[in-house]
Amino acid sequence: RILSNSANRERAVEQILDLVVSRSYDGINIDFENIPPEDRTNLTLFMKLLYEKLHPLGKIVTIDVPAKTQPTYSGWSGAYDYSALAKYCDLVIIMIYDYHWSGGKPGPISPLDWFSKVLDYAISVMPIEKIVAGIPFYGYDWPEGKRGRGVSYESAISTAKEANSMVHFDEVTGEAYFTYVLKGETHYVWFQIAKSTELRIKEALSKGISRIAAWRIGLEDPLTWDVINKPKD
Fold first, then answer.
1. Is the peptide bond before 11 cis (omega within 30 degrees of 0)?
2. 161 φ, ψ to 5°?
3. Cα-only R_g, the chain
4. Which of 8, 9, 42, 161 has the smallest CB count inside 10 Å?
């Protein structure tokens, strides 16, 4: 209703403008998800209106978008026109995670080959200086045949220790994994360690992308911050 009605769009933008200015914020991040593909143009219009109000005031406008490796016009990512949205944002944060998700089959959250392809597509349709590579700090624990639940690094390691399970690291996908049995039920766990973040940062930097974002602080391997703070070649 916010996006498809012009009066609602303008009202929402004015409220955001008032919020940002009255609280002296640096800017705003828009994270609208589950948008119907038919609202693709309306989302771009919303961001255009917001950008034209905030940018002259020196405020930063950013948006979170789903990851994709090619143009899409349907499904989860169909509403997000990378090229058009980039015109009305200072930064575009691409959520390059949930390749395997809680409602699907077990597997890596952000496999490196897919991560790389998402960035390649983004570079082909928007200015590279606006791209922010979104990386996961989390994992999932999937009981066999059931919906998974999100896990932090700490909880994943704790579970592995309690179950006396060996944690492995998959160099190809760049993620840690293990299995364990609880009450006769096999669980499959994939999660991130500091090495996971290091590999994604290196991949982004190799393509000329110098910014990352992450979901979310508090879920990460504590050593992740040593990787982020380390001088980059």
1. no
2. -65, -45
3. 19
4. 161
